[in-house]
Amino acid sequence: MSDTQTTFLGRAPVDHTWQAAFGRLVTLSTAKRPHGPDFDPYLDKLTREVGALVTKIQPHAIHAQYLGFALSQAFARTAGGIPIIAIAHGPEVMVAEHNAREREGLNEVAAASAAIVAPTLALADRIDRLTDHRFTDRLTVIPWGIQLHHARARDRPATGSGPLSLVHAGRLDDNKSTITAIEALALTDQPHHLTAIGHGTRREHLEQRATELGLRDRIQFEPFLPRAELWRRLPNYDAFVFTTSGLEAFGLVLIEAQAHGLPVAYSDLPGVREVLGGTGMPYTPGDPRSLAAVLDEMGQNPPMRRTLAKAALHNVRRYDIDDTAHRVRELTRRVIS
Question: CATH number for the 7-145+320-336 domain, one of 3.40.50.2000, 3.40.50.10840, 3.40.50.300, 3.50.50.60?
Fold first, then answer.
């Protein structure tokens, strides 16, 4: 939003390469205590710090990232007449569905907001239910996007049938369900190879499970990669495997994979289905046998992979980050006026 002067509030360490995008970077000093008995004192202290900054800066509008998290609650309590645009990302909605206290925080921020942005209709519907439909008119869907002109599809089309070189990228936790991909490889007719890129609490368990299934020569674990490095490597694979089993707010990595011409095998969740628009191969979430069947079908059918790759490049045109920025900017202007 080059025509907008933005102050970014973040936590140390703040990446100062962001200075190109934001007019000013402010590092918050309140120590983070997001859980447990220390949360209320933490929120009170954070609210005082944020309140002083809001009074000093006097912004025309506030973008509160993560509907319901502590910083957004601090904004809700200090904004006064300054309009808030709350931007939902997914994790805060997940915790609010299972925790009454988090749900109260989400409702507090929703009530204080002039507008609530969600990247998919599926996530907007979840928020609408969690807030008892009291703020339906404040909800708007603005899909996330990427810099499409930086992406490069592979320069060789799929020709031969046989084992696939698969890639999975994301957090290694229970919701992302990387275990589904690992167990699926034990059930495939073809010896597909999987590269799992990312870090998370389930890494050790996933490696152990791969060993138990005799798959360590077919599964390679790699640490989290910066976006530029991930994008450089994506065209080297035959297909992308997306395994989330619960709520998925958007799944930006799906668009990154498609922008590089990769066919996608995906867990058939509402938000993912909405983003892909029928341009991937769905399987039953959390079901390794269902995924194994999809992978074998993709491996045996090069014409289908070529069709999926073409459809992927067409679908991804809907997710240009410039369009996202334009829509957020226009929403901000409407809210201010």
Answer: 3.40.50.2000
